[in-house]
Amino acid sequence: MKDIVIRTVCRVIVPFVQVYGLYVIFHGHLSPGGGFAGGAILGSSMVLFALSFHLEAGAQKLGHETSSYLESGGGIWYILIGLLGLALGSNFLTNRAAGLGFGLPGQLFSGGMIFLLSLGIGVKVASTMFTLFYNLSEEEGSGGDHQ
Amino acid sequence: MSLHLPVISIALLLLASFVMPLLRRGARAAALPFTLSVLGAVFTVSLYLIYLVESRGAFSYHVGGWPPPWGVELYIDHLAVYMMMVLSSICLVVMVYGARDLYHEIRAEVMSWYYTLYLLLLASMIGIALTNDLFTLFVFLEISTISACGIISIKKDRECIEASFKYLILSVLGSGCVLLGVAMIYMITGYLNYDFVAQELPQAIAEYPYNILMALSLFIVGFSVKSALFPLHIWLPDAHSSAPSPSSAVLSGLVIKIYAAAILRLLFRVFPAELFEVVPVLDILLFLSVLAVMAGSIFAMVQEDIKRMLAYSSIAQIGFVFMGIGLFGNRALLGGLVHIFNHALMKSMLFLAAGLIIYAAGIRNIRDLRGIGVRMPLTMGAFAIGAFSMVGIPGTNGFISKWHLALGALDLGRPFFVAIILLSSLLNGIYYLPIVINAFFGVKIEPRSEHRDVPGMMLVPVLILAAGVIFFGFYPGPILALLEQAIVL
Amino acid sequence: MEVNPYVAVGILLLMAYVFFYLPAGYIRHVLIVLLVFIIGYALVMTVSEMPTFGAVDTPAHNVVPERYLGRAPEETGAVNVVTAIITDYRAFDTLGEVVVLFVAIVAALSNLKAR
Questions:
Q1: What are the percentages of helix, strand and coil residues in chain A, rounded to 5?
Q2: pLDDT digits over B436-466, tens only?
Q3: Cα–Cα distance for residue pair B468/B474, rounded to 1 Å
Q4: Which of B117, B263, B437, C44 is 20 to 30 A off residue C107, Cα-Cα?
Q5: Distance separating alpha carbons of residues B418 and B148, to the nearest angstrom
Q6: Does A124 sit within 8 Å of C78, measured CB to CB?
Q7: Nearest residue to B340 via CA among B236, B422, B262, B395
Q8: What is the mean pLDDT of residues B130-146?
Q9: B4–A68 CB contact, under 8 Å
Q10: Whether B65 and A97 lie within 8 Å, measured CB to CB
Q11: CA A38, CA A24: separation in Å to the nearest integer?
Q12: What residues in C contact A32, CB-CB < 8 Å?
């Protein structure tokens, strides 16, 4: 797609969408939202970018290598946070009882594990959306070339 | 610390599967040793957990430190550790075989994806075995459904796509049924934890009879689709016969059984016994299991492809597990449960032996197997042991489970099922024994394709499983002792 | 409400036969309509006796939401109760959800790259 209107609007919109996605992720314990919703917003911003420019342009911003690291990283992060509760002498995925709960309820840096887990979920959901979109559309493109 | 081991083993498997795609070119060679060591660690943990549960009894684990009605609870009892031992041991042995076999069945690029899916499948099955919470059950059900489809469709052949697509659609339909059932149970009881639901359900029967009936039937249909109980089995032959051999072994040996174990837990720990007087669920399961045993055996007789025949035979054998559940007596249940382990041993061994024959001689058709026993004596010897075990000849472990099922049926005064068991043994003999006889004594047909040597890495797991079939045929004591404590009704 | 096992098994077998084996045609249509009516009847009966949505005395209003709604901020440190439930009280299920996303990606990619 080479429409200049779409490209310009997209260039303006994408940073705002991404900031909003990060806001939703980081405020998951304070306001409606959280890792899943915020991650979907983040991922859709990248999908929007790749759609309005070009698949290769999207791949330059976020390569296969990086997205697979993010993909695994989100899950590993989640499990490591869970094991942290174990290391602190409590059960798997324990939050406050293990001494992880920092900050006062209502503040941005509060909730302990919840804050950290939301981050992991957000990264995971965003990279899942982007990886799936990117690989499926890439496959479609290469299939078309063969015909 | 040791009480954390069940959740640590699930976390370890998940962590390993997350790490697996990150292994790049240089580290890719480490993927296999890494997978095997993780599987070995989980197997060791499961043996230790058996010791732990035997010595100090069943215990529950509160994930996140929240007590049951609020948090997620894992309940580690005799049945759970038994299932965990079965799952991890068979998975470990099959993976040793798969280390060599997979190289000619799937592309090298997707090898680490295969290990990932395999570890996730094991993790989710262990989760299903351990969980004490309806929603956690559903979540692990989803993981196992998708990863089971993944290890079928990963093969190069195109027919795998159709088979795994059929499996995916029907299996997701089953998941949907289970989810709807979970939602109904939550709506009328207000809990998700098995113990709390079981407390609430007797009062709810009077108020919401149709809801409970509907939830029960949705659970039965959902789990029956997934464990291929007779009228809902049509996805199984395609899926299990077209998959790579290690996948077939795991799918046929373990994946269809874990759903039977899950429905067993739901029926006996969640739904109240008064319900079974109103709704004859157990009779329905019994009826279907008899049909499964007969139909599976009859369909298996007319198959030409060896893996397809083994797949149909699985339909018959899952019938025995459900027969044990449906008879609802201590002894019969013992027979059904021990058949989970015994069938896992012999069916995975038979699939691996069939895979070995396909690898070495390129033969899939049963008629071409004539005289193969001379060329591959050890493989066909193992196959023969598996075939004898399927028929239920004394000295093999197949005999033990059928013996207990038959005695259980007699205890309950239902000799009809003894006749069914005998008849199915006869039918098994009709289709298994000619293969063995022809392989060893048949007129030798000239090999069509060049003959490849059998690698030791692939032969050893088959022989280990064959030794297991014989060993547990003579010494079933430890397994039976564990299960007798598991089924204190 | 007595259920006859033979009738139940018969319906199940008929359903499996109609859905999986019966070739398309007049009989199949009639049988499918019949089966849809049987299932529909059961579902309508189920829906008709469900507890009223949002009523105070539904079974789902028990100690579980009481503690979630009343004590989540002090126990977990999160003001948003929904997030407190999914990432603290039932964080293990959310781990499962994350794994579901991962396994979906892995299954799809392995399928695409397999051939």
A1: 70, 0, 30
A2: 888 888 776 665 556 777 888 889 999 999 9
A3: 10
A4: B263
A5: 34
A6: no
A7: B262
A8: 94
A9: no
A10: yes
A11: 5
A12: 80, 82
Chains that touch B (3 or more CB pairs under 8 A): A, C
Residues of B with CB under 8 A from a CB of A: 4, 7-8, 11, 14-15, 18-19, 21-22, 61-65
B317 Rama sector, left if φ>0, alpha if ψ -120 to 50, beta otherwise: alpha
To the nearest 10°, report the CA torsion of C30, C34, C40, C41. 150
Q: What's the domain count of chain B? A: 1
Give per-residue burial for B271-301: e unless 16+ CB within 10 Å, then b: bbeebbeebbbbbbbbbbbbbbbbbbbebbb
Q: Which two tokens stand for residue B327?
A: 């008879």
What would the two tokens of residue B15 be? 């962590």
End-to-end C-alpha distance for chain C, whole angstroms: 54
Q: Please indicate, yes or no, if residue B324 is contained in any of the structural domains.
A: yes
pLDDT at residue B330, as a whole number: 86
pLDDT for B290-299, tens place per residue? 999 999 999 9
Q: Which of C2, C45, C97 sits opposite B210 (nearest CB)?
A: C45
Which residue, among B84, B109, B102, has the nearest Cα to B24 in the 3D structure? B109
Of the candidates B66, B69, B204, which has its C-beta nearest C59's C-beta?
A: B204
CB C20 within 8 Å of CB B170: no
Token output for B415:
């000799």
Q: How many CB atoms lie under 10 A from the CB of residue B169?
A: 12
Cβ of C102 under 8 Å from any chain A Cβ?
A: yes
Residue in C closest to A133 by C-alpha: C105
Q: What is the pLDDT of residues A69-122, one digit of tens each?
A: 888 999 999 999 999 888 888 888 888 877 776 777 777 777 788 888 999 999
Distance of CA C18 to the CA centre of its chain: 24
Positions of E strands within B351-447: none
CB spacing of B11 vs A69 below 8 angstroms? no
Confirm whether B427 is domain-assigned.
yes
Q: What is the model's pLDDT at position C7?
A: 82
Is the CB of A34 less than 8 angstroms away from the CB of C80?
A: yes
- Is the pLDDT reported for residue B163 higher than 70? yes
Residue type, B485: Q
The strand pairing partners of B72, in sequence order, are B63
Selecting from A93, A114, A135 the residue whose C-beta is nearest the C-beta of C78 gives: A114
Listing DSSP states for B105-168 in one string gives HS-GGGHHHHHHHHHHHHHHHHHHHHB-BHHHHHHHHHHHHHHHHHHHHTSSSSHHHHHHHHHH
What are C43's two structure tokens? Answer: 């579902």
SS3 letters across chain C = CCCCHHHHHHHHHHHHHHHHCCCCCHHHHHHHHHHHHHHHHHHHHHHHCCCCCCCCCCCCCCHHHHHHHHHHHHHHCCCCHHHHHHHHHCHHHHHHHHHHHHHHHHHHHHHHHCC
pLDDT in the model for residue C75: 84
Q: Which chains lie within 8 Å of chain C at 3 or more CB pairs, if any?
A: A, B
Residue B293 lies in a domain: yes
Q: Centre a 10 Å sphere on the Cβ of residue C58 and count the other Cβ atoms it contains.
A: 15
B376 pLDDT band, cuts 50/70/90, is confident
Alpha helix locations (H) across B362-396? Answer: 372-375, 377-391
Contact criterion met (CB below 8 Å) for C44 and A64: no
Q: What part of B 284-343 touches C (C-beta under 8 Å)? A: 284, 287-288, 291
Model pLDDT, residue B178:
95
The angle that helices B194-207 and B209-227 make with each other, rounded to 10 degrees, is 130
Q: Is residue B144 part of a domain?
A: no
